Amino acid sequence: MRLTHLTRILSALLVFSFSLPAFAATAPAAAAKLPAAAGNVVAEATVRGVISDYLMQKASALAAEITVKRIGYYGDLKLPAGTVSYDVVAPDRWEGYGPASVALVVRVDGQVKRNQTVQVEVEALTEMVVAARTLERGEVLSASDLALARRDLNQVHGSYMKAIDEAVGLRVKTTLRANTPLRRDNLERPPLVKSGQLVTILAENEVVRVTASGRAKGAGALGDVIMVQNLSSQKDIAARVLDATTVKVDF
């Protein structure tokens, strides 16, 4: 009876002694996973701020009031533990305004962990010449036809007029509605010489000055080179428009 009782006590002690190493072995493994699980969580607002700062810097050279209208990035950024750095890269041809797709590159300790495309839009307001009324094709502009107003550079793709004097005297190439910003390619210099018009052909240098009668084979504004027929020789020559009745042959 005593032997049986002693055997039970020894069995209990043996079970307890083997349980301790098993418990001790699992504890360090669980503790080693904690640093990796912690990592870095970068708030959405922080990432958007990085992109916004880049966009403002990109547009800083523009003579305009800059507003970031859209940043298509959402959600917190979960990263491994380490030092986080960011790069934002825009297309080479993007001038800093209007819509664009930029690349967001996120690194941890120099290793790329995120590379994604983000849609953005930047408004750049500046003063430019607009139509004060509807302008019909062929009209030659006066100051009263024009006004100054603040408009987004994206409306004119960078090609705009800053001063009314720049547009006065030019001719409208296509009908423009009131308040439309004037692009340089909307306008042209009105021709001084019309096709078929009789002109004086002038050829001169420091020694000789010769004139002849001619007929314009095309229309041309001041400084344009047009083809002109010499009425004496019946030959066509290239000449530059000097005024409404005179063209000059350079030689």
From TrEMBL:
Q: Where is the signal peptide?
A: 1-24
- Write the protein's name: Flagellar basal-body P-ring formation protein FlgA
Its cellular-component GO annotations read: periplasmic space
CDD domains, per database record: SAF_CpaB_FlgA_like
List the Gene3D superfamilies hit by this protein, alphabetically: 2.30.30.760, Antifreeze-like/N-acetylneuraminic acid synthase C-terminal domain
Q: Which PROSITE patterns match?
A: AFP_LIKE
Q: Name one GO biological process term.
A: bacterial-type flagellum assembly
> Major place of localization?
periplasm
List the Pfam families.
ChapFlgA, ChapFlgA_N
Limits of the AFP-like domain: 128-190
